[in-house]
Amino acid sequence: MSQRKMLLIDTDTAGDDCTALLLAACWPGVELKAVTTVAGNVPLSLGTRNALTTLEIAERPDVPVYPGAVKPLMRELFTAEHIHGSDGMGGSNFPEPSLQPQDEHAAQAIVRLINEYPGEIEMIAQAPLTNLALAYSLDPSIVGKLKRLWVMGGANNYIGNDSPAAEFNFFVDPEAANIVVHAGFNLTMMGWDVCHRSPVMAEEHFREIEAMNTAFASFYMKVLRTGMELGLKRTGQRRLSHPDTLTVAMAIDNRIMSRSGRYYIDVEYKSELTRGYSLVDMNGVLKKPPNAEVCLDADRELFREMVFTLLQQH
Ligand code: RIB
Ligand code: CA
Prior knowledge:
By secondary structure, this protein is α/β, with parallel strands linked by helices. The protein has one domain (5-311): Inosine-uridine Nucleoside N-ribohydrolase, Chain A (Alpha-Beta Complex), CATH 3.90.245. The chain contains 14 helices and twelve strands. The protein has helices at 16-26, 44-57, 81-84, 106-116, 130-138, 142-145, 168-172, 174-181, 192-196, 203-212, 215-223, 225-235, 243-252, 300-312; strands spanning 5-11, 30-37, 65-67, 121-126, 148-152, 187-190, 201-202, 239-240, 257-263, 265-267, 278-280, 292-298. The chain is globular, with a radius of gyration of 18 Å. It starts with a strand and ends with a helix. The structure holds alpha-D-ribofuranose (RIB) and calcium ion. Calcium ion (CA) is lined by residues 11-12, 17, 41, 126-127, 244.
């Protein structure tokens, strides 16, 4: 890919979020303008620290990190240390990063950057959508100025992860997810179903990565350790779904989204039972105009090629 991509990433940095950031920070032809952080997988302060650690490992001290919302719009925070480890980095206890976060609030930084680069930025929202819903409330005109919004969130009529009915990012802040999907962004939804139907990385891939013996490969194995162990406990094999890294990879190389379609999508926020459930009207029953491109499948081979190239590089 030789085309330059200007990316902005909103993240609740833990586990897979870290490898997604590493990819965006190091892939040739990508200009990572900024990282914004939000409470989700881990509390905001820890997610911000993990983003700074990742950028330090990536040797990208020039990428600014803007901390944002400490909690969802209307609800208490639900975190996922059980998936990512107590530090969100597989329990690896990395030393305190020397990089510092910016003072500007993430929502304001999102508004400012999109206005500074109208039609140029693609944003990847790989966390609860609190910051983006706040940014939209501050300045609804960003909808027409953001080139493309990639949302890792929701699931296409599929089982959830932290709730039987919903994917984690939509579950944590369903009100924010509802606001964002109806705002009118040029939105692509990369749902949990795409990476969960069959594992994106499995035992044979981890063996290859372990054998690389590079700093990035060792970082990968450390930050994803808790997730891998969970896979081992549940299925007898180490495996990972990689939702965030897969979304960043698709934004960088659109061929990785091997199948997609335009549909009307919606997010449930009133019911407690199905809180955060994402509806994709695949049969057009509701007769509403499509508001999203929905990823239906991924080219896993191409994705793994990209991740292997990244991990071999340093
Ligand atoms: O449901 C997948 C999402 O929640 C990802 O963004 C990942 O960070 C996970 O915890
Ligand atoms: Ca995430």
